[in-house]
Amino acid sequence: MSGTQISPDGDDFMTPEWMQQRAHDLAVMNAHGLMRNSAMLDDATLAEWLDGAHIQGSADYFDGFAVLFGFDRHGQDFVVIKSDDEGGLHFALIAERSHHAKA
Question: Is there a domain that residue 68 lies in?
Fold first, then answer.
């Protein structure tokens, strides 16, 4: 991606150039099967989203983050990159539609 700022603290936030680059980034993400269904989540949103999920496994031997994977409450495959930093952002990828997904 372009390195587009996501924080309003940046000097170039919400300029026409920033808006154009952000629109481009979103279009590229939307065209990609994994990025289309991705999200950055805060601690509370991640906890709520994982409530009812079936976590099949995790890898927590990385420095600074853990990887969780399984099925969400709707039966869709997911992978979460969970930050070890309290108050940090986490990154989730959700499959388009799993063969395990409920109808």
Answer: yes
Name the DSSP letter for residue 86: T
Give the model's pLDDT for residue 28: 82
What range does the domain containing 85 cover? 37-94
Residues of the chain with pLDDT under 70: 1-13, 97-103
Cβ–Cβ < 8 Å for 80, 17: no
The answer as to whether 18 is a domain residue is: no
Residue in 61, 62, 79 with CA at minimum distance from that of residue 70: 79
- For residue 11, the model assigns a pLDDT of 61
Question: Is residue 22 in some structural domain?
Answer: no
Q: What's the total number of domains in the chain? A: 1
Q: What distance in Å separates the CA atoms of residue 89 and residue 46, rounded to the nearest whole number?
A: 9
| Whole-number pLDDT of residue 2 | 47
Q: Is residue 34 a contact partner of residue 93, using CB atoms and an 8 Å limit? A: yes
